[in-house]
Design a protein that fits this description.
- By secondary structure, the chain is an alpha+beta fold.
- It has a single domain, classed as Sandwich (Immunoglobulin-like).
- The protein has 4 helices and 17 strands.
- The strands form 3 sheets. The chain has an 8-stranded mixed β-sheet with strand order 2-1-4-7-15-12-10-11, with no helix packed on it.
- β1 and β2 form a beta hairpin.
- The longest helix has 20 residues.
- The protein is globular, with a radius of gyration of 19 Å.
- The termini are far apart.
- Bound molecules: copper (II) ion.
């Protein structure tokens, strides 16, 4: 009886270990997200994949007590750039169709939504309610190849980004809040073309959006990104608004406008 119990117990432990090392999958489509309804709190490993035809991202937003997912969306529709009391918890940044990115970030217990802020998707596309509850589960973090620091208003890179699978440790010394989106420029396109395209949101894309790390309410939080990079000219770009009280419905200056944009070459 005792032997049977031990065998059962070790098999169960293996299954739990396997589960905790496989990422939480978030799939974006043009109609919303496919993702679990519930995850455990802790430092979690997410795999974000865009199966839509438009660029999407997936910010984790912790809702204030008493505010539903629908209430949050209504506040955005009412003109709030980021509804009061809600907390941003980072998430995978702008990602082109067919692209994917892995991110490690910390979530605390509470009621969250996944929301995409690209091109008005926060109100035109369904948000995904996500409960963070249960015992803490920390996924192992890979060793970083480079450290990326988000500073007012520039990107500091420690180490050189190479082709192939790279792990970036993203820190925010700030003191303002930032985000980073990675792009690979198409031949003949420039940083100026990319900035203009992100501002005007029309015309053919001058670059592929590779994913990134969205902003967090807590600047001390570190996130990790893992991505398979091809050689080519890349751009790091921050779209945070300069004015925190900017309205979602009016044009505003972004951090990229005040210089938070950087071209880097990934060599073969
Ligand atoms: Cu910024």
């Amino acid at each position: 009886m005792l032997v049977v119990a031990c065998l059962f117990s070790s098999g169960w432990q293996k299954e739990v270990a396997a589960k905790s090392s496989s990422p939480i999958r978030i799939i974006a489509t043009d109609s919303g997200f496919e993702a679990p309804p519930m995850i455990a709190p802790g430092l979690r490993h997410l795999l974000f994949e865009n199966r839509g035809t438009e660029i999407h991202e997936a910010m984790l937003v912790k809702l204030p007590q008493g505010v539903s997912a629908a209430g949050f969306v209504a506040a955005v529709k009412g003109g709030a750039l980021f509804p009061k009391g809600a907390l941003d918890y980072s998430g995978p940044g702008l990602t082109s169709p067919g692209e994917s990115i892995e991110i490690w970030l910390t979530v605390d217990p509470g009621q969250y939504i996944l929301v995409c802020w690209n091109s008005g998707h926060a109100t035109s596309t369904a948000v995904h309610p996500l409960a963070v509850q249960g015992g803490r589960a920390d996924d192992p973090v890979p060793k970083e190849d480079v450290v990326l620091k988000l500073v007012d208003f520039r990107f500091d890179l420690e180490g050189r980004l190479r082709q192939g699978i790279q792990v970036l440790r993203v820190e925010t010394p700030g003191p303002a809040m930032h985000e980073v989106d990675f792009y690979r420029l198409h031949d003949g396109q420039s940083v100026a073309d990319l900035k203009r395209w992100r501002k005007e949101k029309r015309g053919p894309a001058p670059a592929v959006a590779l994913g990134g790390a969205l902003d967090s309410h807590d600047l001390s939080r570190v996130v990790w990104l893992r991505k398979n990079f091809s050689p080519g000219r890349h751009v790091l770009h921050c779209e945070m608004p300069v004015e925190s009280d900017a309205s979602a419905n009016s044009p505003h200056l972004s951090h990229a406008d005040v210089g938070m944009v950087r071209e880097i070459e990934i060599k073969e």
